[in-house]
Amino acid sequence: MGYLGTPIDTNNTFQSLQGKRFNGDGSETEFTLDIAPSSVLDIEVFIENVRQDPNSAYTLSGTTMTFTSAPPSGTNNIYVVHQAKAVGTIEVPATYKSDAQTISGARTFNGGITMGGTTPTLTIGDAGAEDTKIVFDGNAQDYHIGLDDSTDDLVIGKGSALGTTANIVIDENGHVTKPLQPAFLAKAGTQNNLAVGAYVDIIYSTEIFDNNADYNTSNYTFTAPVTGRYHFSFSLNLAAVDAVGMNYVWFQ
Q1: Order of strands, sheet of 30-32, starting from the edge strand that comes earlier in the sequence
Q2: Residue 32 confidence class, pLDDT cut points 50, 70, 90
Q3: Span 155-168, average pLDDT
């Protein structure tokens, strides 16, 4: 898409007005300018400090300015000020067009971003073998949503680095796993000669797995990481039970 108007200054500098002086000799009517104006209204012409009528005092053809009457003799008694440079056409950078664009390099946007249209789409990545992510930069804690390209998993995790602490993982088949969801399995060893008429602790000392390290094998205690509802179950096999003096077995 073209842009009509004075060319944009891409160097972040201000453009000064142009001007030029001529010496009149009483007979010369044509003078050469450094810049070709687009119109007689783009310049101001002074003879002996008197502004000339652009509609009748002179004409323009490229850089040639022709007076209808020869200016009088004098040193620098003719002065021309360019009020506007020639209007041209430039190409607007692709990043400012309304259609889909590719932006390279890091960008910082202060404020909201709104995507309109019938099917607005934000694409992250270019189909290359690389991880892609969105990072939520928090005050005390960061989080990310990203694609782990090595496993083809969509990951929601803690921190800004993909793959460090995955909280929710969705694979290409739609399976959802929570690697840090509290869950453990422990196994009890063999205990002999249990006392009758007394409480006896069954020791589950062998840990099979512990997703979030919430089960302590030193004191055989599970510590809930967050307030919630937890389901516990266990199995116990009693063998060679002596019935003498024992009416029941109570598990607590």
Answers
A1: 30-32, 64-67, 58-61
A2: very high
A3: 89
Q: How confident is the model at residue 122 (pLDDT cuts 50, 70, 90)?
A: confident
194-203, Cβ contacts within 8 angstroms, sequence gap of 24 or more: 196/242, 196/245, 196/246, 197/245, 199/252, 202/236
Instruction: Determine the Cα–Cα distance for residues 212 and 119; give it in Å rounded to an integer.
Output: 41
Q: In terms of Cα–Cα distance, which of 185, 250, 177, 189 is closest to 222?
A: 185
Region at 36 (left for phi over 0; alpha for psi -120 to 50; beta for the rest): beta
Burial label, 37 (beta-carbon count in 10 A; 0-12, 13-18, 19+): buried
Q: Record the tokens describing residue 203, joined without a space.
A: 């020791």
Average pLDDT for residues 126-151, to the nearest whole number?
Answer: 91
User: Token pair of 248, please?
Assistant: 């029941």
By the 8 A CB rule, do 146 and 152 touch? no
Residue 13 has pLDDT above 50, yes or no: no
pLDDT at 91 over 70: no
Residue 35, Cβ neighbours under 10 Å: how many?
13
Q: What pLDDT, in 10s, does the model give residues 207-249?
A: 999 988 999 988 999 999 989 999 998 888 888 777 666 677 7
Q: Phi and psi at residue 246, in whole multiples of 5°?
A: -125, 120
184: nearest Cα among 168, 198, 164, 205: 205
The CA-based dihedral angle spanning residues 200, 204, 206, 211, taken in that order and rounded to the nearest 10 degrees: -160
The 10 Å Cβ neighbour count of residue 148 is 18
For 111, other C-beta atoms within 10 Å of its C-beta total 5
* Alpha-carbon gap, residue 198 to 27, rounded angstroms: 132
